[in-house]
Amino acid sequence: MGIVNVTPDSFSDGGRFATTDKAIEHGQALIEQGADILDIGGESTRPGATRPLVSEELDRVVPVIAALASGGAAVSVDTMRAEVAHAAVRAGAMLINDVSGGLADPDILGVAADHDVIYSAMHWRAHSTEMQAHASYDEPGGVVRAVYDELSARLDDALAAGVDLERTVIDPGLGFAKSSDHNWELLQNLSALTALGRPVLVGSSRKSFLGALLGGPDGPRPVGERENANVALTTIVALQGMWGVRVHDVRASHDAIRVVERFAQGQRVEGQR
Ligand code: PMM
After folding, report:
1. How far is CA 28 from the centre of its chain?
2. pLDDT tens per residue across span 193-225
3. In a 3-state reduction of DSSP, which class is residue 254?
4. Which domain holds residue 133?
5. What percent of the chain has pLDDT over 90?
6. Domain count, the chain
7. I want to staple 73 with a disulfide (CB 3.0 to 4.6 A). Which of 68, 89, 237, 269 is the partner?
8. 76 CB within 6 A, ligand 1
9. Beta partners for 121?
10. 3-class secondary structure, 5
11. Any idea what DSSP says for residue 93?
């Protein structure tokens, strides 16, 4: 899944693809690099970000989705708002990527239920201005158990709203109300989440826990210099058999996935001997 942030303030690519034309061009480039889905977002969720108006979010994403979907791309909308999800689906989006899993605007579940789309529910506890205050997982089983239980509750809500669970995807929400250690623990235990019976999507690209890992005395590794590490994570995620990775640099992660696929073929042959 290739990321197209149509936002002036995204933490990793803020402003670069903020105009409609640039965003469309970027989406087309990501398809050429091998993206299966383009994830179009008009709200930055970086820690501390303030929310755009609904009208701003609509103006950012709808024309980009319409252009890319009519060009034949599979398009996802990254939104927490029912109104934006609805407009996006009408413009051709086939997946609603709701980072709040239905908590921010429960009406979004009705939009997913009423249309032939995939609904992706991410683990989330609060909006960006306050989410890091919710990064505590003191219950037995820690962050993995809590994310499992809370995603399970989100799927229950989706089902109650009429969403076909066969068309849902789940996401542990790396960096959302999580410390670096929480993110690593989740990455080490992705298979525990597959027990929910749904495909798992993972978004680690350029996030601050990679900056912290690779940083030195001068501070974290800058956002633009975290890609090699992210390819390593794509490899780790793909080796665990996950459904998808949400990334900025599609070519690099696509190459890693091809390596993992080829490697897995070899393993099956070995196993048959
Ligand atoms: N991360 C961000 C935005 N949307 N969606 C899903 N499903 N999973 C994520 O981890 C996720 C997301 C924040 O990252 P960005 O600002 O680089 O887009």
Report:
1. 19
2. 999 999 999 999 999 999 999 999 999 999 999
3. helix
4. 2-271
5. 86
6. 1
7. 68
8. no
9. 98, 170
10. strand
11. -
